[in-house]
Amino acid sequence: MVGRFGRRLIAMEEPILAAHEISMWAYAVLTALRDRPMRTQAALASAIGADKTRLIPVLDDLQRRGLITREPDPADRRVRLLSLTSAGGKLHAAVQGDIRAAEEALLAHVAPEDRARFLAVLQALNEVR
Amino acid sequence: MVGRFGRRLIAMEEPILAAHEISMWAYAVLTALRDRPMRTQAALASAIGADKTRLIPVLDDLQRRGLITREPDPADRRVRLLSLTSAGGKLHAAVQGDIRAAEEALLAHVAPEDRARFLAVLQALNEVR
DNA sequence: TATTGTTATACTCTATAACTATA
DNA sequence: TATAGTTATAGAGTATAACAATA
Lengths: 129, 129
What we know:
two-stranded antiparallel ribbon, DNA-binding, globular, mainly alpha, homodimer, 2 strands, 129 residues
């Protein structure tokens, strides 16, 4: 059931991401960087559960489109300082808004008191152990 | 959250399936055939949301291990009649038992009244539209 | 020598197309 | 000719290993 629901959500999000010309990984990057800038690409990769090598083309694209900054740290020129540009922040907000609206529409089929309980249990299960 | 929970469940199930030397697709096949035998491989594939071509090595293996039968229909020798053997049924029951036990252990962290509600909402969300 | 990022390579999963056999 | 199943091939997505730059 969880698998089916997850696939349903992904199917629901895909056209939204496509409309903003952004991949799921790119969206994950924007979300992570909105929470806080990162000092290394490896830290970003582990934060979103991705491999560092498969993040590189994603970062290349985001940088080329002016959605993130990616500069060598003057103190240690091996590492790349990553942060969101204002354009990146705006795009993230737009995508997040669309996704939340779609989620709300789906959750509208559930009674409000069940809805809150459902989300709380889901969160609790994710925090077990 | 749903994605994270789904990945967690998959990670939980993987060692169980591996212990029984069975893949996730093979388990899906056994489950579908336990519910009812199938008249064609294509019907089985669509029942479990798989492509018919990627089912073939799975069926080859299950047949070789004596877990399913797979015989040409005498009435139309193009189609293969599929059903579970008793060994297949036993293996499915064993795997399902182990998976259910692991799920119960996880759900034990949730209050019993929340648990039923959670599963009901999950099912309802899957039935929307 | 160790670490960050990058590139090249290989591997897994999946889908598409071509083929065989039956009808 | 049309359909069920099979095989061969190609395409994503991902991970592993080798490499370059910097410390």
